[in-house]
Amino acid sequence: MPIHERENGGGRADGSSVQGRPIVITVATYRRPALLADLLRSLERMHTRHLFRVVVIDNDVEGSAGDVAHSSALDLTYVVEPAPGIAEARNRGLDEVTAADRAVVFVDDDERVASDWLDRLVEGWLEQGTEVVTGPVISVFAPDCPRWIVEGGFIQRPRHKTGTHLATAATNNTLLSIPAWVRAGRPRFDTSFSETGGSDTAFFTGLTRGGVQIAWVDEAVVEEDVPAVRATFRWIWRRAVRGGNVQARVQATESARMLMRVRVAASLPYRAVRLVVGVIRHRRLRSIDLVPLAWQCGLVGGLSGRLIKEYKR
């Protein structure tokens, strides 16, 4: 049953007015049943004081995740979203939020959660008093992963001190207060990002522009394996370029985009030189040198409409 009424009095950001309500964990998936099964098993093994339920949104019209979802011991709702696209699947997850839920949590189908993950995430939410909290995703490398990728820091995501405020978040380990979402007008994920990715960045950036605060909770840990397909220079470069694409597209005004064009023109040569100097000085390729250059190239593509469509089918 979708939400039909605004919370009485709006509710505090820390959720104190809705303590007895469950957390709904949403998982968008597409043809990765084995990975989804790992995630659901990790949720089953959790030790938590909080009532929660799970919604699995299968973006495969053939329902390839059905057997895995239906075999889970969790309080789980399984739905198929036939419209292709990651934003469409995320929006279907929002459709499954009900008036009984106090917060919605987003995790990816290729992750595993720690046994205390939900408690840490909710406790961080209550302690920080913000409308959104987000936590780390730890990359787990295969033994045969190239050393230059591990040592260069290309895959690992940055971590922050608990309580650090952020400008945006991703749907890989994030809790959103339902009262805050309702007060913001029940925003949706922008389907124009479905083929490129980045609808989560646009979604949470929009919330922060509207006054919603996002805080980091470093104790709320999930992990994901790094598949061989990602342990390549091509994937790393394209992923960083795509990040620049997204950043260019979420700029709200033409004046902001114009300023970005000026900054890109000035910084591209510097980034290229820094990459060369970094390789010579450290005798290896490092994320801190390569990714900013790729990001700048992605900004150029985003400003000119040349986009990497990572999720195009």
Account of the protein in words:
The N terminus is likely disordered. 40% of the residues lie in helices and 16% in strands. It has 313 residues and is α/β, with parallel strands linked by helices. The longest helix has 29 residues. Strands 3-2-1-4-9-6-10-8 form an 8-stranded mixed beta sheet, sandwiched between helices. The protein folds into 2 domains: 215 residues, Spore Coat Polysaccharide Biosynthesis Protein SpsA, Chain A; 72 residues, no CATH class.
List the keywords.
single chain; 313 residues; alpha/beta; Spore Coat Polysaccharide Biosynthesis Protein SpsA, Chain A; 2 domains; three-stranded mixed β-sheet; 10 helices; 11 strands; 40% helix; disordered N terminus
